[in-house]
Design a protein that fits this description.
The protein contains two helices and two strands. By secondary structure, it is of the alpha+beta class. It starts with a strand and ends in a 6-residue tail after the last helix.
Length: 80
């Protein structure tokens, strides 16, 4: 299980195929467990329209205890 936020209205500037590009995009932040990160990444790659979607996995260093408890409960594979 994963949970997330969708942030529309981002403007991206990047190099692609030798040119500098500008595009309006939407950012999606997916929150899940480290053990599910590969499966989430595979799903994003399979569903995304880009050849190279920006997928970044960030480790948690410090999380408020109440939020962490909620996150772990919400992403518990056994809770499906």
């Amino acid at each position: 299980m994963e949970i997330g936020n969708i942030l529309p209205g981002m403007i991206s500037h990047y190099r692609w195929e030798g040119k500098v590009e500008r595009a309006e995009e939407t950012v999606m932040i997916i929150k899940t467990r480290a053990s599910l990160a590969d499966a989430v990444s595979d799903a994003v790659k399979a569903l995304h329209s880009y050849d190279t979607p920006a997928i970044v996995v960030l480790p948690l260093e410090n999380v408020e205890k109440g939020y962490l408890g909620w996150l772990l409960a919400a992403t518990d594979p056994a809770a499906k």
